[in-house]
Automatic annotation (TrEMBL):
Domain Helicase HerA barrel, chain residue ranges per copy: 6-96
Name this polypeptide is given: ATP-binding protein
Catalytic reactions of this protein: ATP + H2O = ADP + phosphate + H(+); Couples ATP hydrolysis with the unwinding of duplex DNA by translocating in the 3'-5' direction
Residues annotated as domain Helicase HerA central: 130-364
Keyword list, A-Z: ATP-binding, Nucleotide-binding
Protein family per UniProt: Belongs to the HerA family.
MF term (GO), any: 5'-3' DNA helicase activity
Species this protein is from: Methanopyrus kandleri
Entry-linked InterPro entries: HerA-like, HerA_barrel_dom, HerA_central, P-loop_NTPase
Superkingdom of this protein's organism: Archaea
Keyword ATP-binding (UniProt): yes
Length: 524
């Protein structure tokens, strides 16, 4: 398809912006269209831009004054002369298929061309990860695999924007390229990856077919009722006193409690060093219980109350069975090319989730440092809980320090991080700024938008305005994994999506049917 002239440069206040008057036969030019104009004195380089705004200007003169008077009096308005004007953000100068910094502003009166889909496809297909199509176009968009892993990425968007669905697409693409994936899944949304999608009709329109992933392993707490293939357990002997303090927030309320806990843990550690006898959280609880009984017998009220306070925190965690004498998954054995590991933490208290995330992220990092596992892509869902911004941090230790280390140093060892959050304003700025590719879905909160703007490159005020009103499943993508910032319609998933927003009416109808059956059984 040949290029078509859609107008002529009218004004060019800087190298990063120009305005053009749209030709009468090209008035379908709209926001989001990609256009080019020759860069002056550049040996054929072209300025590539995206239309950010379109307006109609009424010509001044007698007709305009008559029109205003007619509107005020309610009489028929005479036909007006008007011009369509488009404002363009210059993304860069195209040279040998690459985008460079522009050197000269567009020259007024020069012709502006709209890029045909064939050229758009060529610009956006230089990658391995098929994300979707340019919004309002059939041109496919691919992201760079190496850039996603070595320079990290973030998927951000409010609830219902298609955030987890988009992450599912990235996981499918990683598995297709044999990259192992580890998913930190606080809500159990990714346990359906081995099942094919039910949306065959939509997939066919994209030239795709429903297909579950072959190699998915789901880990969950031993006593949980959720989907799992293997248990999640942590070798309690590897926990430090600080870790137990996260599990027992009551420590801060009782003066002697930290000392009581430290004595118990250090005694069990001493026995382990001397005899090799491992211990679990149950052993810690039994030892604390014995300490409480001794304190009560001796009349030491302070020690007794301190031990009981710690027990109140630790005892409820026993029912999850996470803190045992062995570690599962054994990451050295389970992280294999093309395999997806889902750590399903649904129903696990936040303080226990912090320890699980800290432990396994640290372990993944250590194994990659020693090259004992393949390059890996780690998905951190609900990142605002594990890497909270300053004001959101609790007084207790969180996984923040290890997430920061992973974000800063992981890229050196081919350990990629995908930060996922519906509240980017509450994510630690150090972590978010390490994500060189941003995939931003609908977001409306001003604090969230401001943190996105500060952390990502190529995110203009105009782009932020459009992000507020994006339809579900459309994202603004910018950064190192994409050559040009773009609005993208994310492709349909081949696997079944496990994070659909529940339909309240359907659930109520099921309850009504169940009640009717129960009434029938009771003869009511």
């Amino acid at each position: 398809m040949e290029r078509k002239v859609v107008g002529y440069v009218y004004e060019s206040p800087s190298v990063r912006e120009f305005t053009f008057v749209v030709s009468r036969d090209a008035e379908d030019v709209g926001v989001g269209d990609y256009v080019v104009v020759r860069e002056p004195d550049s040996d054929g380089r072209e300025l590539l831009g995206r239309v950010e705004d379109v307006r109609r200007d009424v010509h001044e003169g007698i007709k305009g004054e008559i029109a205003k008077a007619s509107m005020v009096s309610g009489r028929p308005v005479p036909e007006l002369d008007w011009t369509v004007v488009a404002r363009v953000e210059v993304l860069g100068a195209l040279e040998d298929g690459r985008l460079r910094d522009p050197r000269m502003p567009a020259r007024p009166t020069d012709a502006v061309y709209r890029l045909p889909e064939s050229e758009l496809e060529e610009l956006f297909s230089k990658g391995e990860v098929f994300l979707g199509r340019l919004k309002d176009s059939r041109a496919r968009v691919f992201l760079g695999l190496n850039e996603l892993i070595t320079l990290h990425c973030a998927v951000l968007g409010m609830t219902g924007s298609g955030k987890s669905y988009t992450v599912g697409v990235l996981i499918e693409e990683m598995a297709r390229h044999d990259i192992p994936v580890v998913v930190i899944d606080p809500h159990g949304e990714y346990t359906s990856l081995r099942e094919p999608s039910h949306d065959r009709e939509r997939l066919e329109r994209w030239g795709l077919e429903p297909e579950g992933l072959d190699d998915v392993e789901v880990f969950a707490p031993p006593h949980s009722e959720g989907v799992k293939d293997y248990p999640i357990t942590i070798d309690t002997t590897k926990l430090e006193v600080d870790d137990f303090e996260v599990l027992a927030p009551e420590l801060s309320k009782r003066k002697a409690a930290p000392q009581v806990l430290e004595e118990v843990v250090k005694e069990l550690q001493r026995r382990y060093r001397e005899t090799g006898e491992k211990y679990s959280l149950e052993d810690v609880v039994e030892e604390l219980d014995a300490q409480a009984k001794r304190a009560r017998a001796s009349g030491d009220v302070v020690q007794y109350q301190a031990a009981r306070a710690v027990l109140r925190d630790l005892r409820p965690l026993l029912r999850y069975g996470i803190f045992d004498m062995a570690e599962s998954p054994d990451l050295r054995r389970h992280v294999r090319p093309g395999r997806v590991l889902v750590l399903n933490l649904r129903g696990v208290p936040d303080r226990a989730q912090q320890i699980v995330v800290t432990h396994f992220l640290r372990r993944l990092f250590e194994l990659r440092q020693r090259d004992e596992i393949p390059p890996v892509f780690v998905v951190l869902e609900e990142a605002h809980n594990f890497a909270p911004a300053g004001e959101e941090r609790s007084s207790s230790k969180t996984a923040l320090s290890v997430v920061r280390d992973f974000a800063r140093e992981g890229r050196k060892f081919l350990a990629g991080l995908c930060v996922v959050s519906q509240r980017p304003g509450r994510v630690d700025t150090t972590v978010l700024s390490q994500c060189n590719t941003m995939i931003v879905l609908r977001t409306a909160n001003p604090d969230d938008l401001e943190n996105i703007r500060k952390s990502g490159e190529g995110i203009t005020r105009e782009a932020l305005e459009r992000i507020k009103g994006l339809p579900t499943g459309t994202a603004f993508v910018t950064g190192s994994a994409i050559r040009i910032p773009a609005f993208v319609d994310v492709r349909p998933r081949m696997t079944r999506h496990g994070g659909e927003t529940p339909d309240v009416r359907e659930i109520v109808e099921r309850w009504k049917e169940d009640d009717a059956e129960e009434d029938l059984d009771l003869g009511i």
